[in-house]
Amino acid sequence: AMRAAALLAALRPVLPLVLGLSLGCSLSLLRAAWGRPGAEPCAGARPGALPGRARPEAAAPGPGHEEFRPRIVPYYRDPNKPYKKVLRTRYIQTELGFHERLFVAVLTSKATLNTLAVAVNKTVAHHFPRLLYFTGLRGAKVPHGMVLVAHGDERPIWLMYQTVRYIHQHFGSDYDWFYIMQDDTYAQAEQVKALVTHLSINQDVYLGRAEEFIGGDEQARYCHGGFGYLISRSLLLKLHPHLDSCRNEILSVRPDEWLGRCIIDFLGITCVSQLQGQHYHTYELAKNTEPEKEEEEEFQAALAVHPVSDMTLMYRLHKHFSRIQLDRTYQEIQDLQMQIRNLTALTPAGEAGLTWPVGINAPFLPKSRFEVISWDYFTEQHLFSCPDGSPKCELSGASKADVSEIIESALEQLNSRYQPLLRFSKRQLLNGYQRFDPTRGMEYTLDLLLEAVTQKGHSHVLAKRVSLVRPLSKVEIIPMPYVTEATQVQLVLPLTVQDLDFVGNFLDMFAMNTLDTHDNALLTLLFIYHPYDAQRVSQVDVFAGVKAMVGELEKRYAEVKIPWISVKTEVPSQVKLMDIVSKKHPVDTLFFLASVWTEINMEFLNRCRMNTISNWQVFFPVHFQEFNPALVYRGEQTASSGTDFLRDGHFDRHSFAEACFYNSDYMTARTKLAADILDRDEVLESMEVFDVFLHYSGLHLFRAVEPGLVQKYALRSCNPRLSEELYHRCVLSNLEGLASRSHLAMALFEQEQANST
């Protein structure tokens, strides 16, 4: 009995699990027994479809129907073929075959290319992810900021045929929706983008303003080209095989009518103005229409307006619809703020939990004194926290415009609150404070000296403190050109006599991290001879030891060649040296300008490839400089843990020795520099490659800390023949690279203790 009681006590915790499993298995068996034996689902039937109404194409999908599911491609390696590194796509969207959402095509002509097409480009082009202009005029001068495709034939039907064919050939596999419009059409870009997000991509869609054919079938409709129309990708794929037949068999004067007849005759699909609960609203403009005075509901809700006769009318329409959209947005914000206030009163915190402004994140709360965000003081003329570290600098450019705008906004808010009882005007900005809160945006506190005027004309001067917030807006993903990690990197290593002690370590790291791993990287050495050493090179070559090391590497790696270039100069200007290297390499070469203390590794080389984009961006990494171990450890054992290797050092922001850039970008910037300085080569001695890209290129300069570039401590030799700024920067780099303030304080303390004893 005692054993049974003990066993029952041990099994008691698992009894609910056993009972649950038993009950579940019993119910499953009962359900299987109640089901009709031999019943099978209908082939091709869709969930929710009525009996006998299944679509015939669902039972046997054709090439135009796609399964919109992720496809996992299994990896298979043929044992009979040599091993090759598998290069996978960087983005999962590419690997899974996802498409972009919307492509826009604008049909233009010779007469309207520089007028209406430019107006379309300035009003709606920046709202669409991809927009191209199509014309029959060949050799036309393309206005700035527009991508034009010329077919060489201005016949309307031929232009439509070639445009649809071009879209299928170049973009048919990349986009889900295709919107075709004319340059005399004003389309509300945001409304069109919102429309396609509510439509299913798995249907054949031909959506626009439905019009009847002249003398044709009463049921058939085509989409009027003047109001734009939307075509789905599935419809475009089905239409493409029949385009040649349509061109030869269908006669029509209007290109939109020709396309509609082609779709109806070969696919049996007619144009519709509403689909899946979404309406394609349009409005036809009358002559001498005043957009500002149009109050019809049909006009306010229109996605597309046609015809637009001139550029001025296009801009007026854009201003009017932008104002409508802005008013709707403000009204939505007010409604949401009211809902937040009502709901906050029901929370445990009550109205005390309501933040200001309503709907914006609460200010950042620091957890320690090190996280406190400081305020920057400013006036209308000066800023007292300057980017270069100086205590006071003049307000100019965007900073001055920002201060003027927030003062105007403060006055506008005060007048809207107190009018008509009081009207405020600014006398003076007494004090201004600003700080950037990463959780909400830019915050301002203003002390304003104001003059208040009553309705009876009495005035009074008073000081008022106001607070403003410029909240962070919608986060946007900046489109960047696609780059891969397979690009070959050409390392360039300038060497002077003072660098000979460190070359061996550089070559060893290069061999271990690139040659042994078969990384796609090459090395070119640049021997910089002093004129005195150059005269004695036949007797004593100061770089003979380095050349011997290179020879050993080439013997060890038979497929590797490490060339070198010899240069004679007293002033080793980085720009002059790069000029010599640039001429000896192709224009598409990706350079990595290294220093002798750089330890090459695959992790950094991949970041060099990804962060450098031809004709777009150059990369200047900030390497991590280790401190002097004699000052940091003072005889103690150095830290060897892999988790704190970035502890005893700092990122050297004074050094611009390392750089990644394409030769073509350097040559372009160097050409502009040559035109600016003419024959004054002495200017080059005061410049680095960074200065060339900063002042003479329109590229993005990506300057970021790089934990993959760790350099051991070494006292750099600073050449006094270089410019004062470069020499001063080199000295600062050496001084700040000695040790941290705490380490230097401890060293001084120990020295004073030793002297006192």
TrEMBL record:
Family of this protein: Belongs to the chondroitin N-acetylgalactosaminyltransferase family.
EC class (word): transferase
InterPro entries in UniProt: Chond_GalNAc (IPR008428), CS_glycosyltransferase (IPR051227)
Compartments it resides in: Golgi apparatus, Golgi stack membrane
Keywords, alphabetical: Glycoprotein, Golgi apparatus, Membrane, Signal, Signal-anchor, Transferase, Transmembrane, Transmembrane helix
Membrane topology of this protein: Single-pass type II membrane protein
Superkingdom in the source lineage: Eukaryota
An annotated GO cellular component: Golgi cisterna membrane
Main location: Golgi
Low complexity bias spans: 45-63
Name of the protein in question: Hexosyltransferase
Stretch list, region Disordered: 45-65
Molecular function via GO: glucuronosyl-N-acetylgalactosaminyl-proteoglycan 4-beta-N-acetylgalactosaminyltransferase activity; N-acetylgalactosaminyl-proteoglycan 3-beta-glucuronosyltransferase activity
Secretion signal span: 1-20
Catalytic activity, EC: 2.4.1.-
A Pfam family the protein falls into: CHGN
